[in-house]
Amino acid sequence: MVSIQSVCTSPSSLTYHDLPWIVQHREDRCTLCGRCTSICPVQAIYLTYRRQRMPKLDILQKKRGSDYRHFVGIRQRTNIENKCIGCGMCSMVCPNEAITPTPNSNEDRSLFHINQKGEAWKRGGRRNVSGRTILDRIIFDRISMLTDPALDAGRHEFSTSTILGRILPPEEFLRRKAAGEWIPPTREIFPFIIGSMSFGALSPNMWLGLLQGVAYCNEVLGIPVVMATGEGGCPPWVLKSPFLKYIILQIASGYFGWDEIIRAIPEMQCDPAAIEIKYGQGAKPGDGGLLMWFKVSKLIARLRGVPEGVDLPSPPVHQTLYSIEESVMKMIQTMSMAFGFRVPVYPKISGSTSAKSVLNNLVRNPYAGGLLIDGMDGGTGAAYNISMDATGHPIASNLRECYLDLVAQGRQNEIPLFAAGGIGKNGNVTQNGMALIMLGASGVHIGKYIMQSTAGCLGNEIGRCNVCNLGLCPKGITSQNPKLFRRLDPDEVAQRVVDVYMTINTEIKKIMAPLGRSQSLPIGMSDALGIDDHAAAERLQIKYVC
Amino acid sequence: MCRLALKTADTPFSPYEVLTAMEAMQEGFDGSGLGLLLRGIHFDDFNYRIDQPILSGIAHTEEALQRLDEYMAGQGYELKYDHEFTITRGIVEAQDREKYIIRVYKDPVGAEPSQEATEQRYMQVRLDLRRDGEEHGGDLTVFSFWPQVVMIKEVGWPLAVGDALGLHDGRIKARVVMAQGRQNTNYGINLYACHPFFIQGIATMTNGENTAFVPIKEWLTGKQIPGYLGYQSDSEVFTHILHYVLKKLKLPLETYKHVITPLKTSELDVHPQGDFLKGLRTACRRLIIDGPNAVIGTLPDETSLLVMDHKKMRPASVGGRPGAWAFASEICGVDALIPDRDRSLDFQPMREHTVIIPPHRKEMVIWSQFNQFALPQAA
Lengths: 546, 379
What we know:
Chain A is of the alpha/beta class.
């Protein structure tokens, strides 16, 4: 019996079964190679000497005693900072399938103690709400078979591109054309855009892989994919390359990286696809960007014009301006002017019940090139857990009410709406994206899905991994540590980007063909949508089907 | 599926001729209704002056007819001629037709004489009467109020409708007749859902299904342009787009095709007017139609046109000779309308074509989207 006094306990001491992931280790298979302990990004496991008593009974001498066996074993740490994140890298490197993390079916008691030293929990990842989303439940039910020969997704020609940039009413277009006046720039792009993930948040290899893949889609496959940079600038070699035309440069409240961009303007070979002004992010509304010091490497420091190894929080708002109306107006005009009015400039806001007021403001701004609304199911590289879990607005109804607001004004052709936040969360990327397009979006931004599908991001909706903020990404996607990002081969990422876009392109056709659509993307074709939820159908003004 | 037929000729002819041509194509339609538009009208028993507006519609009750009379008198229109059909009851299924209205009016004294004001005024009369009918349980249906245009719509087998109204008696003749042989069974049966559709002298009828209907309808409705209403049929937007292109944007007829089925970027890159057309495509993006469609239209100057969808998924043929031309869904329809023509010159338009029969009817103009066109304003 162990005496009570000798039990080492404190308010925050936990056992394996209190943690979200339990490392299961089979000693009979383990060769003690040590790979698992050395790869574990959070040092959740360690090799340790153990002693085991071996009862000994000498029958002839009628004596009892004990022998002790010493062995090396693998154990899981139970303190908060080393709790297992379930990434499974241990099982990936184990030569004998001797170790694996398993989700704890018991309650996760670490949640009660994660605020050690008064620090609220910060993490990367997503909202951690699993199950089918509203978008997953939308079906395309207006199958055109009444009078039609069906379209053939494999044989017919489909126009799947969308327009980014302000579209003038036809009368105004003709007037300006005749008068030789300025016509706002537009871009014909693929409606699934790689959403903003910054060059600080992503590793150089990940960024390179994405860009290679995007360039291949454009130049070889003819799929006009564009990607957004996120805050933090763009590597100078990209800024001065012909690939800049596939890139949407983001400017956010920290203005990180814009010194480099502005200086590169005279040397740019082409214009960027667009400029995105970030006012908000769906995953953490009201919060600015956050690049934690772990990830501010020498390269990142140079790009952003800051010292190495310091936290880089962007303020929640653009501090230099008084109100969002004023801010939007001045920033859009400034950025348009910087690029000679040849580049569409649009704001990105977080999904919110106030999105409509921003939209109405934009409609009256002749320079605004669109609006990106980012819903709360989006991911992020670093944020407070509370922001991710509890703040924001789901994208579907937010986007829909904004679109219908434009419809009521007859201006849905003018300001293209882009939607983001949780698209492809459960893998149904084309279905989710097309549902949003038929609800009124001109296109969608996908971030998490791209990380998962092109680079094998391990994150999921039950709290797996989610350490993007710490620069510990076991796959090397969101790390600035060369030892980690070396694991990611940019060529393989590029290959996966191409796989993904070829598939989305085919699936779009497979959705459009039965609806009898091939000439243009079915933006706002809400008569094709149905959902098995009466309340959602009413809210989205689509059909209830069961 | 429905069938379309159009005949245009220098000499006025009976609409019954077109109905018999519809009969030739009878295997292709369900015969659920008839829509007729007559242009270039000649009345046998009335000396019609070509600038007098003609009201076409159906009064379903006596009371509705009375309200119509009161309204027209109130607006200052003087009734000059009231066409009485030689009706044979019992052939058509609908029993609530008090009177098929074809009435010629004289403009109010002192009305604003400008063309634009007159066109606006005529349309307003049609819209007012239509609303009046809708407010009274649908007892009054008005199809058109326009000089030189008569419209008839009814549920039933096309030839039977013609017989019921005695259209074979030759008392009404026209230089252009558009006929469509089906009620809109895609949606609910509604006389307003029957092709051809009409707005300010412009009329179109379609064989097909416009799958981009809802976004186009929403956009047109949002423009708040008087007359852009109804949309009981997905094909009505084709008429309104044509109206929008010609009357609102004041673009040449050739651009209609560029608006509804624009060329691809790679095709426009090498088009002599590519820069303008790309801009037009972007600005008119919401008017891009989709689905299989053959659109036949006529304009106030008696121009006739035929365009196909971008995939050419609906058939339509054109044939004729100087002075008489026919469009029909099937070649047997063209045969029935103009048997005495050189068949080797018949034409089936492809996806890039707009077939235009100009008002002089001397030739068939085949215009391709890849060709340049005169665009004084902008390009």
